[in-house]
Specification:
By secondary structure, the chain is α+β, with helices and mostly antiparallel strands. The protein is built from five helices and twelve strands. It has a seven-stranded mixed barrel with strand order 1-2-6-9-8-7-5.
């Protein structure tokens, strides 16, 4: 894979040469519009709204509409004055706890690979961020546009993740979320208290298998006992009902185990 660009991570007096690679790939179908009779591709022409006549590229200018029907025309010199030169540098300005950043700010990740001479500094930065749970907030210029971004650890690599500026996130104050009615909350609480769940370690009391059913074999059970190696434990959950009336109530509400006075469910717990 070829890098998108090569540059550096910098903060204070630290300089880490890196290469930037895209971490995601967008795949989508593209269709052409065709004339039905002979499948000839359809083309579009640029026409003026005033007279619907075609306008050549040499007569087209860019303008900003500040009022309906009123424009400020901008030329190439105007755009050149505000052009941001790319320095190919990821300038970290601050370090913050990852938990303090709303996940909705992040939207596009890139892998960062250490280049020759920067391996040790790269590893130290990765270790420091991983150990403290912090991320570096940075500014970076890509394609002549300045972005807010975060540098954070992801597995063995550091990742540059582009972020939205605060003004790019609308506050949906007009949306309404209806609170559940008081009697619904009381009913849910009552059902939760009545449904008693007892969890039994499936490895101490092996799950009985009926004929034709598949279940964990001895090798899988032996591996799963090592909790440091496999953070998953198969458990048997038993549902008990205090009375026939309670069983009917659970059946009406489609709760687990409603077909039997006592039923068992095997689940994987992480």
């Amino acid at each position: 894979m070829r890098p998108t660009w090569k540059g550096s991570i910098s903060f204070g007096l630290v300089y880490i040469p890196i290469a930037v690679y895209p971490a995601t790939r967008e795949e989508k179908l593209s269709f052409r519009q065709l004339r039905k009779t002979d499948l000839s591709p359809i083309k579009y022409k640029k026409v003026a709204e005033a007279d619907m006549k075609e306008v050549p590229a040499t007569d087209i200018v860019k303008g900003f509409e500040y009022e309906r029907g009123r424009y400020i025309v901008l030329n190439d010199e105007d755009f050149e004055k505000v052009r941001i030169e790319s320095t190919h540098s990821i300038d970290i300005t601050d370090f913050v706890d990852l938990g303090r950043v709303d996940p909705k700010f992040f939207y596009k990740p890139y892998f960062l690979e250490a280049q020759k001479g920067g391996e040790k500094a790269y590893a130290l930065l990765h270790k420091a961020l991983s150990g403290t749970g912090k991320i570096g907030i940075a500014k970076v210029v890509i394609s002549n546009r300045e972005y807010l971004a975060a540098v954070k650890p992801d597995g063995l690599f550091l990742v540059l993740e582009l972020m939205h500026f605060a003004e790019e996130r609308p506050q949906w104050k007009g949306l309404s979320a209806e609170e559940p009615a008081e009697h619904d909350r009381a009913r849910w609480s009552d059902e939760r208290d009545r449904l008693q769940i007892r969890r039994t370690d499936a490895w101490q009391q092996p799950v009985e298998k009926n004929e034709g059913e598949s279940g964990p074999d001895d090798g899988q059970i032996k591996q799963a006992k090592d909790r440091d190696r496999i953070p998953m434990k198969l458990q048997r959950i038993s549902f008990h009902y205090d009375s026939d009336q309670e069983q009917r109530r659970c059946a009406e509400n489609h709760l687990p185990g409603s077909n039997h006075r006592r039923s068992e469910l095997h689940v994987a717990r992480f």
